[in-house]
Structures are given as structure tokens and as C-alpha cells.
Design goal:
mainly alpha, about 5% strand, two-stranded parallel sheet, two-stranded antiparallel ribbon, about 40% helix, 11 helices, Serine Threonine Protein Phosphatase 5, Tetratricopeptide repeat
Length: about 300
């Protein structure tokens, strides 16, 4: 018999995997960058208006007066500088504010930071705001003019002073202030105690106590350059620019080569007192004393703009 070949179905074709979907590409339109605008010339002291505070943080000082009546105890609100503004040489005046004088531990109970202080303090003002209008009424400081105190127990005062220095180095400011106050009570004629009380009060933003402490220090030692300069810095920070300028003039009368006083006084005259001629004299004197001053370029720029 004839063998009939069984019909066979062709093998099923292998299934092909579906093509992978193409990834979606998102197109994001970026906003065009703003072109860098050339820096515009700005008048001196063009920072933001200061805002009043009950007890501004001391440190010499770079505050500015209010627009009409200058109230004591105001600090500037500083905005961020853009790239374009940093290109403007006028803005080179804006130096970082430095801290109050650094402390170091005395080597013995009788040594204080006042005896080893190297006259480090921040400058009073940065010439970056328009000068004060001649019609602006400036607040004046009411001097206490203390009488020369009588001596007390110097040994106890020195021990308390050393405790205050140690506490201040450890950032225990309230303890330091109390120790300095006790030192002034133990010996009311102890210059170092009043000087350190002024420094610590400045750091604690207690400007009334700071100013009074420096008044006592200067009553005991009227020729102290560091006490007079710090007193002027505190006066300016408390928004008494006229009195600050007067104190700096006193300092320069006995120390005509004190460069930092010329710089601080020039900034005060240019920024807050509206006396460009006096500011120019002190800027020129500063350049004579320190031709390579860190802000010499900016000072020369100001001098060229204010002939």
C-alpha cells in the first residue's frame, strides 16, 4: 500500500520582539542671559539705608546716618554685591568689617590686653554713600566728663581683670563684663580695666556702657591713642559722626602720622558730614604716609572724581 506522508504544518515562525520605543526628548528653552552691564559711577556711601537698632554690634564701625535726623544706634543693611558692581573701582572701598581687638591670655595676673594691644580696630566708615545733606540734623553725644577717679586696690583689680580676659577669650562675654566692672570698682583709677570694659561692651553691643568706659579711660590717660581711636569708632557706630570726627581730630593733633585716623576721618567727612574738602586733605595725607595702602587705588579714584 502506498504510504501517505502525514501532512505536517510548517514550524511556527519565531515571534519578533516589538521595537523599543524611542525615548522622548524634552526641549527646554533657556532664557537668554542678561548681558553684563557696565558699572555705573555711584556717589560715595551708596549702600542701603541703615535700620535703627537698640544696641548695634560694636566694632568700628561702618554704620551710616539716617536720611534726616541721625538717631544713635543704627547699623547698615548690606545687600549682596553683583558681579558688575564689583567691577566698579568705587566699590573697592567696601572692605570687610573687622572684629574687635583680639584678646590674649596675660602671662601674669597684672598684665592686661590693654598693655599689649597693638592699636587694632576697624575703620570708622566706608566712603560709599552720598554725603549727608547740609540740612541734615545730626545727633550729638552727651559727654559725662567724669572726674579723675581715686586709686583703689590695684592687686584685686588686676586679679579680676585677668579673670575677665580669660572669660572673654572663652566667649563667656557676660562673665568678662562682670569681671571688668568689678575691677573698676576695686580700683577706680585702673586704666586697663576701663579700656577692657570698653572693648567687651563694644563686642556685646552695649554702646552706652562702651562709651562711658572709654570716657573714664581717657580721663585717666588722655593721650592714649588706642582709647581715643576706639572711642571715636564707638561714637561713629552709635551715630554720632560729628563727635567721632572731633575725637579723631584730637588724636591727630598729637599724632599727625596716625594713618588709620586719617583714613577714618576722611571717610567720615566724605560719607556723613558732607565736607569733601576736609576729606580730600586727609585722603592725601594718608597716601603720603602709606602710598601702598590697601585702598590706595580706590582713594585715588575718589580724589580724581572730587577735585
Amino acid at each position: 500500500p502506498t504510504r501517505v506522508a502525514a501532512a505536517t504544518s510548517p514550524p511556527p515562525a519565531r515571534g519578533e520582539s516589538p521595537p523599543a520605543p524611542q525615548p522622548k526628548v524634552e526641549v527646554v528653552r533657556l532664557a537668554e542671559e542678561d548681558p553684563i552691564k557696565p558699572a555705573r559711577d555711584v556717589a560715595l556711601n551708596s549702600e542701603a539705608r541703615s535700620q535703627n537698632t537698640a544696641a548695634p554690634k560694636p566694632a568700628a564701625a561702618n554704620s551710616t546716618p539716617a536720611s534726616t535726623v541721625a538717631a544713635p544706634g543704627s547699623e547698615p543693611a548690606r545687600g549682596k554685591d553683583g558681579f558688575a558692581s564689583r567691577l566698579n573701582p568705587r566699590n573697592w572701598f567696601r572692605s570687610k568689617e573687622k572684629p574687635a581687638p583680639a584678646l590674649s591670655t596675660p602671662t601674669n595676673r597684672g598684665e592686661s590686653i590693654a598693655s599689649r594691644e597693638t592699636n587694632k580696630i576697624t575703620t570708622v566708615a566706608r566712603a560709599t554713600r552720598p554725603a549727608t545733606s547740609s540740612r541734615t540734623v545730626l545727633a550729638r553725644y552727651q559727654y559725662h566728663s567724669p572726674a579723675l577717679p581715686k586709686p583703689g586696690n590695684r592687686g584685686d583689680a588686676e586679679r579680676l581683670l585677668s579673670q575677665g580676659v580669660l572669660a572673654q577669650e572663652r566667649n563667656r562675654l557676660s562673665e568678662a563684663l562682670e569681671a571688668y566692672r568689678q575691677a573698676t570698682r576695686a580700683d577706680p583709677a585702673f586704666f586697663d580695666a576701663y579700656y577692657n570694659l570698653g572693648v567687651a561692651s563694644y563686642e556685646a553691643s552695649d554702646l552706652p556702657q562702651c562709651l562711658l568706659a572709654y570716657e573714664y579711660a581717657l580721663a585717666l590717660n588722655p593721650v592714649s591713642v588706642k582709647a581715643r581711636f576706639n572711642f571715636a569708632v564707638a561714637l561713629q557706630r552709635a551715630n554720632y559722626p560729628r563727635d567721632a570726627a572731633n575725637e579723631l581730630e584730637k588724636l591727630l593733633a598729637g599724632n599727625p602720622s596716625e594713618a588709620r585716623a586719617h583714613f577714618a576721618l576722611a571717610n567720615l567727612y566724605a560719607q556723613q558730614l558732607g565736607e569733601s574738602a576736609k576729606a580730600r586733605n586727609h585722603y592725601l595725607r594718608l597716601l603720603e604716609l602709606e602710598p601702598q595702602h590697601e585702598q590706595a587705588t580706590a582713594i585715588r579714584y575718589w580724589l580724581e572724581a572730587n577735585p
